[in-house]
Amino acid sequence: MKIALWIVFALITALWTGTVLISAELTSWLASAMGLGQAGDVITNVGQWPVPAWLGLLIDPAWIEGLQTVWGDVVGWLGQSGPALGSVASWLVPLMWIVWGVVMLLLLAAAVACHFLLGKVSRPSGLTRRAA
Question: What does pTM read for this prediction?
Answer without folding.
Answer: 0.62
